[in-house]
Amino acid sequence: MTDIVRNWRVELIRAYPNLFHPPAGHPESARGYPWCEEGWHDLLQRLCVRLEAALREGETIQILQIKEKFALLRVYWSGDVSPETAARLREAIALAEARSACTCERCGAEGRLYRDGGVYMTRCAEHAQGAPVPGEPGQENIPLIRLPASNGYRIGARRYDREADSFIDTPSSDAGSEET
């Protein structure tokens, strides 16, 4: 008997066809196929729930790309939505990116930033490679992330509470530069 290998990426695409728009019968060929490890499966599931909840009736988006870049999740999309919906979508993506900054990409446990040569990764102590990247005391879980802005994104810092899966705004939350 042959064991069927579970592909969480295909299952995610099948669960959210209105976000991924996969070719009929070929979810593995969806443009937004996730290129990250299984540890981020839960945060992608949370993201998809939030993205669907942000859409109003008649609005549609397509996830164009999901990947890891510099140890953080990156999600790109396009769609026909109102400015208010676009802001809610960007906020959902900012939460997922912040969670990725403190979640092991391998197993999903709480993690931190490591560097192995020129490669950065978010890992737990068990899956760590290289050395931890030092940070400023008191700045834990305040990643620099892409924050929603009126004309796209801006780079800024927000304290992320992993247990509550939410942001706790700090006085430095308004600092940052615009990015389009």
Task: Give the SSE layout.
Blueprint: H1 8-15, H2 17-20, E1 34-35, H3 41-54, E2 60-69, E3 72-80, H4 83-100, E4 112-116, E5 119-123, E6 131-132, E7 144-149, E8 152-157, E9 159-161, E10 166-168, E11 177-179
Parallel strand pairs: 1-2
Antiparallel strand pairs: 2-3, 4-5, 4-6, 7-8, 8-11, 9-10
Helix pairs in contact: 3-4
> Which structural category do the helix and sheet elements fall into?
alpha+beta
Mean pLDDT: 88
Distance between the termini: 53 Å
Radius of gyration, in angstroms, nearest whole number:
17 Å
Give the beta-strand count.
11
Shape: globular
Strand content: 25-35%
Helical stretch tally:
4
The strands making up the biggest β-sheet line up spatially as 1-2-3
Low-confidence stretches: 172-180
Number of discrete domains: 1
Give the helices and strands as they follow along the chain.
Answer: HHEHEEHEEEEEEEE
What is this entry, summarized?
The chain is α+β, with helices and mostly antiparallel strands and 180 residues long. The chain has helices at 8-15, 17-20, 41-54, 83-100; strands spanning 34-35, 60-69, 72-80, 112-116, 119-123, 131-132, 144-149, 152-157, 159-161, 166-168, 177-179. The protein is globular.
